[in-house]
Specification:
- The complex is a heterodimer of chains A (about 375) and B (about 210).
- Chain A has seven helices and 18 strands.
- In chain A, about 30% of the residues lie in helices and about 40% in strands.
- Chain A has three domains: about 150 residues, no CATH class; about 80 residues, no CATH class; about 130 residues, no CATH class.
- With about 375 residues, chain A is an alpha+beta fold.
- In chain A, a hairpin with a 4-residue loop joins strand 17 and strand 18.
- In chain A, the strands form four sheets. In chain A, strands 3, 4, 5, 12, 13, 14, 15, 16, 17 and 18 form a ten-stranded antiparallel β-sheet that branches. In chain A, strands 6-7-10-11 form a four-stranded antiparallel β-sheet.
- The radius of gyration of chain A is 28 Å and the shape is globular.
- With about 210 residues, chain B is α+β, with helices and mostly antiparallel strands.
- Chain B has a domain of about 140 residues: Protein Transport Mog1p, Chain A (3-Layer(aba) Sandwich), CATH 3.40.1000.10.
- Chain B is about 30% helix and about 30% strand.
- Chain B is built from four helices and eleven strands.
- In chain B, a hairpin with a 2-residue loop joins strand 7 and strand 8.
- The N and C termini of chain B lie far apart (about 70 Å).
- Classes of the chains: A alpha+beta (about 375), B alpha+beta (about 210).
- At the A-B interface, helix 4, helix 5, strand 4, strand 5 and helix 6 of A face helix 1, strand 1, strand 6 and helix 2 of B.
């Protein structure tokens, strides 16, 4: 076992991984010139291999992806500690420093896996207690009969996009996806196959998917809804529809809608005022900020907060950044980030600093001692 | 130094466990499941905003402050002043807002992303609803007049048959085409037209 670990602890692996890492960063950075940042991140850094696509449709892996390099680096570093590192008080600096690097790598892994980015778009006076995913969508059935709460049945995009039958005992109906359209142009209804709901008079014409950090595909799906083995018709649902359709199931009325995925918040945020300052005599934005009211009935919070470019709101584990504006400065766009590993890079940097300081001080003391000894010997 | 092998021996299971943990975390990514949850409604309703620290009493007591004009803010970001004598009606599935004019004509407001098939297709569709034949793109362009939805530049088309008349004002706001459609008999429309123009001026996206 130790022999195997020793092989994995090789410094050659470290050097190769570091070189591959530099190549990956270079390639990933250059790729951002011709593709959106999000896509480049996914292909180069949030992947195990980076493929190159050939004209005949085949793909060949050309570089190890960020996950592969990260895992090898973590494994290599850990094996080195288990096999070759000599544990001593003097070497504690190196240990702390490398622990910081290890934490930095793990922090990035956790961020990739568990962080969630969403947006809150508020028009003047709007109050919302949820944020919306930028790209992910969901099909929801909502039982609105509750007094203060809505019961939401959320079907994730992965189940809709595969086009299979969605039959689950927890759902009040079964859903058969007849056609899913990644991106569509809507025209007023001709030749539509929908027999029920709002979509009867709207036709979804497939369009090439759009790619871009500020672009959203308009998702549509034709679905058959089935209750107790009986068809409730074919419905066309789309993220473009501003209102939900209503459907009666077993005597109960539900809202049915395809929408951008929502993340519920424990509080409500209302936009009171949006301020957009420009450099005098120009249209160049100098600063913009949102004055919002935050109401959290559980925590008995009701206060005013200003969110500006360098002053995000941190609440309920989420960070609300001022990201943009629209609609002639009447709409604010807040970028909302949930990152359970947000503190790890800070801790990692402190550890690396501490480790380096320890290491250099230890070496300095050793050097001073040797110098003093040499001086004494010379004098003698 | 003598203790070092023991430290290594003790640390090894934990480190291996951590590495296995990492692999488990990675392998666990993937399939999302259906979620069922209770979504509370917002603690405060969307409304013209106010500041709880602005020195005013927001306790809900009526202090007989002068009422703002009938400013209506409804879901869908659309706001307008309701002309005198007009009433809000239950919107159908296809529309966001429905209004009944005092003369009995109907105003329907709807919005769709993009150009919804383009001007020619839409105008011919409305012509079809009135039993009129489709027109050529040139004829349609010639029939369009300039209009405004609040401060937004828009187009207007005025169509009629023997019994019905339809005026549609439409313009693009934030990537969506907004349609304001006035329908009724020729007489109802004639009566409602001044209020309709006044209504269009009041439109805004708050």
């Amino acid at each position: 076992m130790k022999k195997i670990l020793k092989k994995f602890a090789s410094l050659r692996i470290t050097v190769v991984v570091l070189i591959a890492g530099m190549m990956l960063v270079l390639a990933g950075t250059l790729a951002q010139t011709h593709m959106p940042i999000r896509e480049a991140q996914k292909i180069y850094f949030q992947s195990f291999v980076v493929p190159i696509h050939l004209n005949n449709g085949m793909s060949i892996p050309v570089l190890p992806g960020g996950y592969t390099l990260g895992i090898i680096m973590i494994f290599n570093l850990t094996c080195a500690y288990l096999t070759t590192f000599k544990w001593s008080f003097k070497r504690m600096g190196i240990l702390i420093m490398h622990s910081g690097i290890l934490l930095l790598l793990l922090g990035q892994l956790f961020t990739d896996l568990y962080s969630v980015e969403s947006q809150m778009v508020l028009n003047h006076g709007d109050a919302k207690n949820y944020t919306e995913a930028l790209y992910d969508f969901e099909l929801v059935l909502i039982d609105t009969s509750g007094k203060d709460v809505d019961r939401v049945y959320s079907i994730p995009q992965s189940k809709i996009a595969t086009g299979n039958m969605i039959a689950d005992s927890r759902l009040p109906i079964a859903i058969s996806v007849k056609e899913f359209i990644t991106n569509a142009n809507l025209t007023m209804g001709v030749n539509t196959i929908a027999t029920q709901g709002f979509g009867q008079r709207v036709q979804a014409v497939p369009a090439p998917p759009v790619k871009g950090d500020d672009k959203r595909n308009l998702r549509c799906a034709y679905v058959d809804l089935i209750s107790n083995g009986k068809s409730l018709g074919t419905w066309m649902l789309s993220t473009a529809f501003m209102k939900a359709d209503q459907i009666e199931i077993d005597g109960k009325t539900y809202d049915i809608q395809m929408r951008h995925r929502r993340y519920m918040l424990p509080m409500t945020i209302q936009l009171q005022e949006f301020e957009h300052k420009r450099f005098t005599g120009t249209n160049v934005p100098a600063a913009f900020s949102s004055r919002v009211r935050l109401v959290d009935p559980v925590q008995h919070e009701d206060r005013m907060i200003t969110i500006s470019m360098n002053q995000p709101l941190r609440y309920a584990g989420k960070t609300f950044y001022q990201a943009g504006f629209a609609n002639e400065d009447k709409t604010t766009i807040l970028q909302v980030v949930l990152n359970p590993a947000a503190m790890l890079p800070y801790i990692a940097c402190i550890l690396v600093t501490l480790g380096m300081t320890w290491h250099f001080v230890a070496h300095f003391i050793k050097f001073r001692k040797q110098q003093t000894k040499r001086d004494t010997e010379v004098k003698a | 130094m003598n203790n070092s092998p023991r430290i290594v021996t003790h640390a090894r299971p934990f480190v291996l466990l951590a590495m296995v943990g990492c692999l488990c975390i990675l392998s666990g990514c993937g399939d999302e499941d259906i979620e069922i949850y209770d979504a509370p409604r917002p603690a405060i309703a969307s409304s013209p905003a106010h500041d709880p620290n602005d020195g005013h009493d927001h306790s809900g007591h009526d202090h007989a402050q002068p009422q703002a004009p009938a400013q209506t803010k409804a879901p869908g970001e659309f706001a307008y002043l309701l002309p005198e004598g007009w009433k809000q009606a239950e919107p159908g599935r296809m529309v966001l807002h429905s209004l009944a004019t005092s003369s009995g004509a109907t105003v329907n407001i709807s919005a769709f992303p993009g150009d919804v098939g383009g001007v020619v297709m839409n105008v011919n569709r409305w012509r079809g609803q009135l039993g009129l034949d489709a027109n050529s793109p040139d004829q349609i362009q010639a029939a369009l007049t300039e209009d405004k939805l609040g401060s937004i530049a828009a187009k207007r088309v005025d169509l009629s048959n023997d019994t019905q008349r339809m005026i549609v004002s439409f313009g693009m706001v934030d990537g969506k085409t907004w349609f304001v459609k006035l329908t009724g008999t020729a007489q109802q429309i004639d009566t409602a037209l001044p209020a309709y123009d006044q209504f269009l001026k009041s439109v805004n996206w708050k």
